[in-house]
Specification:
This protein has a domain of 120 residues: Beta Barrel (Barwin-like endoglucanases). Helices cover 20% and strands 20% of the residues. It contains 3 helices and 7 strands. The chain has a 6-stranded mixed beta barrel. Strand 3 and strand 4 form a beta hairpin. It starts with a helix and ends with a strand.
Length: 181
């Protein structure tokens, strides 16, 4: 009886081995397929952006109302809706930018003192007063042109925070138009 059991186990193992060997021999070898889309890694941008002459695209700006008054900004100061300030995710803290509303043609000089906006598709959050100066408070959002007017940055911000440029290159790029994406 014990021999019958061992014989059955051996038979089952032999059949399983045969099935495994057969399945391995009939399976096609899989070749690695080349990627249909060649991927390229962009090199880091080491120089300041070139000046644009009416070819730069505007960016979308919004504004912060009174709800955030008194809260700390990224620069450490408190948000004042009556100050001419703005939040940008790419421009250095402490830099000044001339913002021109594309639909009204009105401009205002603002100082970057915060990070933001935190809404997809927007590049700049103006203070309430800055938004009033360029006539965008009714709509709340506007296409604007940005022009950097100085290169001063806060000590807490790295000198190369705008598109990887060095502080010497940032000084040379004074008064150039920028399109923030």
């Amino acid at each position: 009886m014990a021999n019958d059991w061992r014989l059955n186990v051996r038979s089952v193992l032999a059949l399983m081995s045969l099935a495994l060997a057969t399945s391995c021999s009939t399976q096609q070898e899989l070749q690695p397929q080349p990627s249909p889309i060649p991927y390229a890694v962009a090199a880091p941008r080491l120089s300041a952006p070139q000046a644009h002459t009416n070819t730069s695209k505007g960016v979308t700006a919004s504004y912060q109302g009174d709800a955030y008054a008194g809260r700390r900004t990224a620069s450490g100061e408190r948000y004042d809706p009556n100050a001419l300030t703005a939040a940008s995710s790419t421009l250095p803290i402490g830099s000044s930018v001339m913002v021109t509303n594309s639909s009204t043609g009105r401009s205002v000089k603002v100082r970057i003192n915060d990070r933001g906006p935190n809404v997809h598709g927007r590049s700049l959050d103006l203070s309430k007063r800055a938004a009033e100066e360029i006539g965008m408070t009714k709509k709340g959002v506007a296409r604007v042109q940005l022009k950097r007017v100085d290169s001063k940055t806060d000590n807490s911000e790295p000198a190369n925070s705008i598109e990887g440029s060095s502080s010497a290159e940032t000084e040379k790029s004074n008064s150039q138009d920028y399109s923030v994406r």
